Amino acid sequence: MEIILKQDVKHLGEKDDIVVVKPGFGRNYLIPQGFAILATSSAKKVLAENIKQAQFKQDKIKKDATELATKLENVKLSIGAKAGETGKIFGKVNSIQIADALKAQGYEVDRRRITFEVEPKTLGEYVANLNLHKEVKVQVPFEVVAE
């Protein structure tokens, strides 16, 4: 029995894979649980069209991320923070502050895509990693200065 998986199934395949299973497994478990549908000719055509459209969207997202990454290569940020006499800041600089500083310069980056190699807890220079796409990553240097 040939089926199309609607989601990842452990030890069987990933979403949108066409797999061959025993009829009882497909009819009694996979299809009723919503994990798969029958692989009819019309379902295969719909799957091919969906994969084509998804690929087009992914290519556009990757292209946009690459363009943004080239713009961000020469950006240097300055983040203000309250600090003590020893240079230790009260609290720490977080991804929201980096996202706001980028937005002020005209770059829209989601704060959940920003990570740090070293958590900025003192004054000085650091690097923020921006994961714009699973294949497009860029590092933006920033400086923490006393307010």
TrEMBL record:
List residues of the Ribosomal protein L9 domain. 1-46
Please give the superkingdom of this protein's source. Bacteria
Q: What biological-process terms (Gene Ontology) are attached?
A: translation
Q: Which UniProt keywords apply?
A: Ribonucleoprotein, Ribosomal protein, RNA-binding, rRNA-binding
Q: Name one Pfam family in it.
A: Ribosomal_L9_C
Q: Which SUPFAM superfamilies match?
A: L9 N-domain-like (SSF55658), Ribosomal protein L9 C-domain (SSF55653)
Domain annotation Large ribosomal subunit protein bL9 C-terminal: ranges: 64-146
Q: Listed GO molecular functions?
A: rRNA binding; structural constituent of ribosome
Q: Please give the GO cellular component terms listed in this UniProt entry.
A: ribonucleoprotein complex; ribosome
State the NCBIfam families in the record.
L9 (TIGR00158)
Q: Which family does it belong to?
A: Belongs to the bacterial ribosomal protein bL9 family.
Q: What does this protein do?
A: Binds to the 23S rRNA.
Q: Can you name this protein?
A: Large ribosomal subunit protein bL9
The top of its lineage is: Bacteria, Pseudomonadati, Bacteroidota, Sphingobacteriia, Sphingobacteriales
Gene symbol of the encoding locus: rplI
